[in-house]
Amino acid sequence: MEDEMEPTSGKRILKLAFTGLDNAGKTSILNVLEKQYSKLSSMKPTTGVERRTVNVLGYRIVNWDLGGQQKYRDDYLDEEARVFEGTDLLFYVVDISSRERFYEALEYYKNVLWEVFESKKSETIPFIIICLHKFDPDLRDDKLVSENIDLAKNLFEENSKDYETKFFLTSIYDDWSILKAFSFGLQRLSSKLEILEKLLAAFAGETYSDALLLLDGSALPIGEFYNNKLSSDIINILAPNFAPVYEKLSKMNIDIDKIWTEFGGKYSLFTRIEVNNQPYFVIIVTLKENVYDILSKLDDFSETLGNVLKTFF
Q1: What CA–CA distance (Å, rounded) separates 164 from 47?
Q2: The listed CATH number (3.30.200.20, 3.30.930.10, 3.40.50.300, 1.10.10.10) that belongs to domain 13-189
Q3: In this predicted model, what pLDDT tens digit does every residue of 113-155 receive, in sequence order?
């Protein structure tokens, strides 16, 4: 999609399409992204196409929620519909609890790729995020669920060899799983986010830190660095909990600059920076002996991050 500028604000507009079968969980994913939790218990099937607009890091993002009932799926594939035209990022949502519909979901996936992108000789095919959805926390040790995930992943991998794809296990009961999938997609679309990741990597190298994570005010991860899988696992366990703690304490008029925690010989730092009156959060995991070095360099690092973030707006 060419850069499309909104006349009044100059922000780039990005089109994200969420598609899949009916009852796959597309609308619930969008509700979680927008923190509209009260809607989760009273949702009705999406009728046709619904558009939602959010602003993230200076981008105006239009999320296209495509109802998954058969009659609508047929309409989307019609040449005149042009529903997928200009899509920057495609989210394909698969309900892992409905094993009996895997092949139906796969057939529609192949139809979308062929009819919409291949047969029309599109100039660009968007990156595809495949959400293996409804991987709820209480099901993670369930053998049947694991078998369903393996089957679904194998089916879609086999039919995605010519495309850029990434799989995520998601659940509306695990906000972080959805935020990570959404964040990964945005990072594929913005070169500026690559700059943030390089800054995080440089600071980690300078201070011998194991991992760094940058969140926006809604706890969306917008940059990360880790030097091994364990560091990644640790920071992704810590991250979803720090921002809500900060928010709750702030509502009690408790001013917090930094939060330190110690565990297993490692330290984690949670700190807040302000950019254009908007909060951002940095989380660092490191060894105890690196703490004072990090503190001595943190103000300059935060200022550098802030200067880069200002260029997004």
Answers
A1: 29
A2: 3.40.50.300
A3: 887 777 665 667 889 999 999 999 999 999 999 999 999 999 9
